[in-house]
Structure formats: C-alpha cells, structure tokens
Design a protein that fits this description.
The protein is of the alpha/beta class. The chain has eleven helices and 25 strands.
Length: 458
Amino acid sequence: MAKKQKTVFVCQECGYESPKWIGQCICGAWNTMVEEKVLSFDLIDKRGIGKVEKGRTKPSSLTDIRSSEGPERIDTGIGELNRVLGGGMVKGSLTLISGEPGIGKSTVIMQAALKIAEKYGRVLYVSGEESEKQIKMRADRICSSICKDLYIMGETNIENIRASVEDLDPVFVIIDSIQTMYTSLMESSPGSVSQVRACANELMRIGKVTGVPVFIVAHVTKSGELAGPKIIEHLVDCVLDLTGERNRELRIVRAQKNRFGTTSEIGAFEMTGEGLVEIENLSKTFLEGTEEGSDGSVVTAVHEGTRPLLLEVQALTAPVSVGFARRSSIGVDLSRLNMIIAVLEKKAGLTLMNQDIYVNIVGGLRPEGTSADLAVALAIYSACTAKPCREGTIVIGEVGLTGNLRAVQNAEKIIKEAERMGFKKAILPKRNASKLEEEKLKIELKGVSSITEAISAF
C-alpha cells in the first residue's frame, strides 16, 4: 500500500532524479528537469520468486535450484521473428520493440498476434493510440481470415489493463505503446519518466506472475534513440529494433538485448501491401542489381548471428573542388573509414588527401564487426584507380594499423555461402585460407597477409 507522496525533479533525457531542481543534469543536458509527484511503496516482492519468510525473500542454495534444458517458448508463427528472439517468445518475458513511426512495428506484431491466437488461444492487443476500428482495418489488410481469439482493447490506464488480463487470461499481451500508458497512482502526465517506469514495472509484474509474454511498443526520436527515458531497457528481457528505409521495402529486426538468446541475430522482412513477408535468402536480396565490372564495387560478407550475409560495398572518389576533403559513409563507422584511408595512404602509397571519398553499404544494413574492412579498402582503391574488381570475387578481412590483415571469425561459413551463391574467387587473410584448404572447396582461395598483397591479387 502507498505510504506517502513526495516531489522529485526528473531529467526527461536520462531519468536522473534529484530532490531539488538543477539547471544542468549529470548527463550534460540543460533545463530538462521536470517536477513530478511520486508515491512510495513497500518493497514487497509479489512475483513469487524464492521462498518468502516474514515478508522477506530467503536465499536459496544453487544446488537446491532445479535446472532445466531451457525456458518454455511460444512459436510466433514468423520464422524470422523467432530467429531474433532465440527460438520464440519465452513465457513470462517482457519484450520491447522500437522503430520509427510507420516502419512496421504494429504490422509485424499484429501478424504474430493473429498466428498465436490461431495456435494457442486468446491474445490481448491493447492500443492507446489507435481505435479498435483502425486496428480491425489493419488486421483485415494483412490477414484473409480473422481469429475470434484475438481481443482488441482501447485503453491507457494500466490498472484497467491489469484487470482485463486477469479476466481474459490471455496467452499473449501487446501494449501499443508504452508512452501512452499511465497509472492513476501518479499525477504526472503519460510519457513522463515516472509514468513510463511505473507502467513498465506493472507490466513486468503481470508477466512474471501470470507467465504471459508481454510485447511493448516504443517510439524513437529523430536520432534513432528510444523516445523519453531509457530506464525501461534494463527492466525488459529483450529489446528489438526494427529499421529500414522508407523508399525501400527491406525491413531489418535486430536484437539489441536478449536474456534468452544471442544479440547478434537479425531477421529480414519485405514490406508489402499485405504486411511484412519473410526474406529467406537475404544475401540474394542485398546483391540484386550489382553491376559486374564497375569500378568502386566490391562484394564482401559478414556473419550475423547464425548465418552469413553477402553485401556490396560501393565507393566513390572525386577531386576536391574547394576546402578540405570530405569523408562520408553509410553503413560504415566513420572513424573506421578514416583509419582505412590512412592505411591506404601510408602502406599502399595512394594519395587521397585531395579526394572526396564516399562509401556505402548497399541495402541499408549496418554490419557489426571488422570483416568488411578489406572490402572497403579495395573499393576505395578501385574507385581511385578506375580498376574494377574481377567478376565473381568476394573479399573479407580485418585491416590493422600496420597494413597487415587479421583473420575473421566464421570464415568457413562465409566462404561456403559465397560458393553456394556462385562466386569463383575469395580474397581473405592467409590464416583463414590455410584453415580452409583442407575443406577442398571449389572456390579459389587467395590468402594474403597485407593490404599491398590484397591489392596485387585484386
């Protein structure tokens, strides 16, 4: 039960609380402190975790805790979404999905809700932004037959939502979106730090007590960050990020956090008039439209989660007309690009000080890791010297500051995927090439130890 009410000042950027107003927050933001009235509660654990004795949780020995093969999961009916979640939704888990407005968050969640309702039973979709008729129109567009076990509720009060969950007893709950929810125990407006934190805590309690997985939708700012405070990220079990370019149909789902699976996995979809359609061969999609024999274009590969992805790296160099040379990149870290350019100038003898350099990863994917370093370097070399890459060649490798090449992880899977896609030659670090010689692959392996050797083999 509530004890008393207190007044605090909360930063709208980072969620920092202060007993008094301050001009500059500890995060560096100015004039972001907002007065809010908060209720204090007794710290009683109602989630049923551990042994309770006289109102306190009693620690248990690790040997007394029963282990299991893994958490019980629910199949979403969407293979790419299951892949990102680690094999499906874990019962009682709290998942946060974010993305720009109109990117397809509500669409993919509605598709999953319809499939889960058909297979498992009742699903509750709570919307604080759209009316029930608007949600019905979306469901009619993406599905030919509507399941009667999918229930829609237009509500923003978290207490009413909790009562509906207790009455309906669903197998899956969707909250769209967390910024519109509020609790009547607080006087602050919906979307504030206190309201978002309190509602997220209540949803976590609902999921842990009932064992129902809960999906929370959150909006992002213009910079791509979660709108409002980021304090709910540590509360949830999984954070999904849905990205894509509005002028293209490709949509990528990436796990930024996952307590029940890997965070390096991605899922690919194509936006259509009937909703999001899964893309099984993502490498083929990224390489569509690649022009053979054009300078500045090099094919590379990265390993995302459990599968290799083939990508096209494009580079363009142009003489500086006025001022300093410009460096621009899409999909490649700018500091990493500047390092590669410096290595090309120092170790390969290229003169790039008077050249504007533009680098782009085709498809809008921002690959993690350093396996595409060598491809970026050779694409810049190709654009500068007007020397195109040989047809059917793939390039992987990490570039060091000394100009040497370091081995990349999962090179075996990458090369086998390239062979399956019809590539005839692979330029890769010598260490990776020596390990792959025993595989007796049909693709030609050209192992190189430095960036100068890679240019000679290009």
